[in-house]
Please model this.
Amino acid sequence: MPSAESEKPEVTGPKFNPLSAEEARVILKKGTEAPFVGEYTNTTDPGTYVCRRCNAPLYRSDSKFVSDCGWPSFDDEIAGAVKRMMDSDGSRTEILCKNCDGHLGHVFVGEQLTAKDTRHCVNSLSMKFYPKGSDLPAVIK
Model:
């Protein structure tokens, strides 16, 4: 069981949402949450996924698909929301929130899992889900 210390929000700067220690490990330190335990891995409700750090909309539920990889998977991002860069190990492509540079996960191409042939493998801890019809929070620039 996590200690009370690990549940304290981590200060990530005056302008972004506070993050728990685990969220900061993933979003700021480019960590990965364990497979098959993320809050949104099996979510199928219609809605929008936003960046947990800055509230920028990232993905729509109609781009989410079941990949059985253990993390939420999307075959497309909201236009202009995600940037790609070579991972530090040089073998994978990291995806980051274009607004705040928060680590989201990795993108894979060529697996033939969807017609778009792309899989954004995203940490649930990097996102918040807002059901269809809900007001989205203001983006923190």
